[in-house]
Design goal:
two-stranded antiparallel sheet
Amino acid sequence: MTEAPPPPGPPVKRSVTIAGHETSIALEPLFWTALERAAVELGLPLNAVIARIDADRLGQSPPANLASAIRQWLFARALDN
């Protein structure tokens, strides 16, 4: 049975460590849940997944902000499945 997604809500800010630096990211609960599930599926810590997304976004010109890059990564991942 598939677990129901979290109800819509305002962004939730969390602190994460990327390349040894702490940063805050604000995402809606739905996106945090999807990101946590992706990390489990990939067998990686959440910070490692976020670090990969961050590295990818910095290679683009101009780079999106990190929260937007995470949402876009999750959307692209959903399209691929």
